[in-house]
Amino acid sequence: MFRKLKRFSMLSSKERILFVEAYIYTGIYRLSLLVLSFKFLTRTLEQYKPGEKVPSLSGFQKDEAKMIGEIVEKAAMNTPWQSACLVQALSAQKMLRCRNIPGFFALGVRKDKDKMKAHAWTLCDDMVITGRLGYESFTVVSLFGWQVLHDSKQEST
User: Fold this and answer.
1) Any idea where the domains of the chain sit in the sequence?
2) Is 54 helix (H, G, I), strand (E, B) or coil?
3) What whole-number distance in Å separates Cα of residue 78 and Cα of residue 37?
4) In what order do the strands lie in the sheet with 46-48?
5) Using an 8 Å Cβ cutoff, are 90 and 38 in contact?
6) Tens-binned pLDDT, residue by residue, of the chain (157 aa)
7) Long-range contacts (CB closer than 8 Å, 24 or more residues apart) made by 76-83
């Protein structure tokens, strides 16, 4: 426990805030997956065809997305509940959406021996920010994206 507190204290103040946010979202999404349907959880997301081009990000957005992905994965490793890939993907998309950073999360499947395996990962620009481990071996079956809210100043230019 002391090591975890020491590692937490070594994070920057911004990373600590993101960690707490990610920790809370992983709990919310873990509970939600247990009691709600997946369709209900993704009702505000748009479904895209696999292979859809991921929107480009600015340098700042890329850095922010990368940091969010790393923090979500760190938070997921420290939860007393199971925070597998789908919980991480949903948590990351929520955090990215709140910061107006566009992206997708993908659901993929593959056959291992006689079993089907599933995996979820989050994509921003040309980066996989959650679920990086082994995602290439999965075939994308669903791709969900979120709208980025533009303020009126951005739309008029």
Assistant:
1) 2-148
2) coil
3) 25
4) 46-48, 139-145, 104-112, 115-124, 127-130
5) no
6) 667 677 777 778 888 899 999 999 999 999 999 999 988 888 888 888 877 777 789 999 999 999 999 999 999 999 999 999 999 999 999 999 999 999 999 999 998 888 999 999 999 988 999 999 889 999 999 999 886 654 433 433 3
7) 76/22, 76/26, 78/4, 78/23, 79/23, 79/26, 79/27, 79/30, 81/26, 81/27, 81/30, 82/30, 83/26, 83/30
